[in-house]
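Researcher: Here's a chain I'd like modeled. Treat it as a single chain, no partners, no ligands.
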Amino acid sequence: MDVIDTHTHVISPDATRYPPDPIGGRRSEWSLAHPVDIDGLVTALDQAGIAKAVVVQASTVYGHDNRYVVEAVRAHPDRFVGVYSVDALAADAVERIRYWQDQGLSGFRLFTTGTTMPGQAGWLGHEDSRPAWAYAEQQDIPVCLQMTGQGLPALRRLLERFPDVRVLLDHCARPDLADGKPFHAARALFDLAEFPGVHLKLTHRALAASAQGASTPADFLGELVGSYGADRIAWGSNFPAAEGTPASILADAREAVAGLSEVDQDLVFGGTAAKFYPAVARRG
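Model: Modeled as a single isolated chain. Structure tokens:
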């Protein structure tokens, strides 16, 4: 099965055409230290043997200006699908969702934490965001969430209200796994498996957390697959925010999941992504 990377970013070298306007007001260090443009991403994916990718808006660079993601998708419609950022609290949030969908993008991202915004923003689940969630549910638009475990109670309340919405949690919602199996500190994450629309993005951050304290990657992945099933877990490199190349990040991830069955590995490295973002399966 083709490998699909669910978490990449692109940074334009043209700061005049695409001026930085980061969420939180401070640009991420990685985007300054090792930015990668559209052509650079294609080259890096080719070198890694990665067939297709989801280009996720670099929220800590461009905020809600998703034009460079649109450019990436239009330049390589056979390789990329795009995920845009929106302000879910804005009065025109649904209008902006319609606009970016019409530009050829394939789902939105809500950014509630990150390297430039430590902690968990308190607005997740605010009543002003409900029209965006309702529209996503009605139109079957996938939602990508950058969040921490502290936001899971708010997410649970949203899912109880909008049970058919499909969500993908960046970095598995950054769980605390140091207590080891059965991972009591991350129990809220595993309990969310009762909502069939919840999917998890397995990245270097989640795998690094799984090697802390009493935890091991094998124990974490066993618990994760046991709770969610591999068909709700999708790999993402987080390139170029993550250190390394897509090739090296993919190799590390393959080593970490080596204990899973071949069928489950195929799902993690491509099958789940193709189901969650149907547009990526239609590309090429």
